[in-house]
Amino acid sequence: MDLSQPSLSRRRLLSSAASAAPMTTFGILGTLSSHAKSAQRTGPVVGEGEHRYEVIHDWVTLPDRYSWQITHNVAIDRDGNLYVIHEGQEDLPDHPAIFVFDADGKFVKAFGQQFQGGGHGIEVRTEGGEQFLYVAAYQKLKTIAKLTLDGEEVWSQKAPLESGAYPDDENTRTDFSDRSEYWGRNHFLPTNFAFLPDGGFFAADGYGAHMIHRYDGDAQYVSSFGGSGTEDGQFKTPHGLWIDSRGEQDLVVVADRANKRLQWFTLGGEHRRTLDGFILPANIDQLGDTLLVPDLSARITLLDRDDNLIHLGEDPAWREQVLADRMAMRRGPSANWMAGRFLHPHDACFTPEGDIYVAEWVASGRISKLRRVS
Description:
This protein is mostly beta strands. It has one domain: Neuraminidase. Helices cover 8% and strands 37% of the residues. It is globular.
C-alpha cells in the first residue's frame, strides 16, 4: 500500500470536495446536476426548504438470473457506479452478494459469492489513485476484506484476537450447531468501516463485542475502544461509523443503534460528545457540512454543522404501522408499502451532486434514489 498519499474513502472524498463549495445551512448550493434539474419527476417529494428530494423507489433491478436476498449497504465509486451488497443466502453459495450499477441504474456486473450468508458493510476507498472495496461480513463469515473493484481479493481477515475480546478459537471454529455458537458479545460480527487519512481504518464490531477496532495502513490491528453498555463511551450495536470532518478536529462518529444515539470520539478513542434524538441510527455519511443518517425505524435524517436535525420521509403513523407488524412489512408484499415512505433504511450514501441512495433491510430488496430537487 502506498502511504505517501492520503487514503480517502469514496465518502470522505465527497466531503473534502464539497467543503470548497458555497454552503447553505444544510448542504451545498448550486450542486444540482443537469439531470436532476431537468428530469421529469416520477415519485413523491419529501423534505423541506433547501432539502427536498424526489423519492424513486426500486431505482435498480437485477437481471432475471439473480435475486435480492435482503439488501444491506451501498457505496459509489468516482465514476458514479453504485455498489450494493446483500446478505445473501448461505444455501446459495454460487449466487453473488455484490452488484454494480452505473449512474443511470443499469446493471453492470456481479461478484462476491464468498460473502453469501453474511454480506453487510461495503465502502469504496481511494488509495494512491486506485480504488478498492472494503467489505464487512457477519453471521458465520466473521470477516473483513479488501477487494479490487472487479471483486479480486487483496486480503481478508477474521477477528483481531490481540484485542482480548474473543476466544482463542474464534477464527478457526466452524462446527456450529446453532446461532448461539457464533452470535453474541464474545464473537466477531463486523458491520462497517471508517477510513483514516493516514491509510488506516476503523472496523465496527456492531453485532459482536460492541467495540470499534483500529487498524493501520497495512491492515494490522492497533487498538480498540467501546464495549457493551449504555454509558458514554459504551455501545449497544455500534452499527455504523464515519470520520466527521466538520469541526476543527476530525472525530469518529458512531451510530450507536440500540442506544438510539450518535457518539463522537477522538481518533484515539476518547469520548467527546453524545447526541440523542434518533430511533435506530444505522450508519453515517457526509457531504460538506451535512451528515446523513439512515434510521432503521422508517426515516432518513440529516444533520447540519451544528447537529440540527431534519427528517426525510418522517411519518409517525406510518412508522407505527411498520413496527406493528415488522416481519410482515419487511417481507412484503411491496404493494403494502407507501410511496415516499421508508420501511427499514439500513444504509445510505450521497452522490457528489447531493442525491442520496438508500438501501433498505427488506427481504425482497429495495434501493431507492432520492433525487435532490431544491
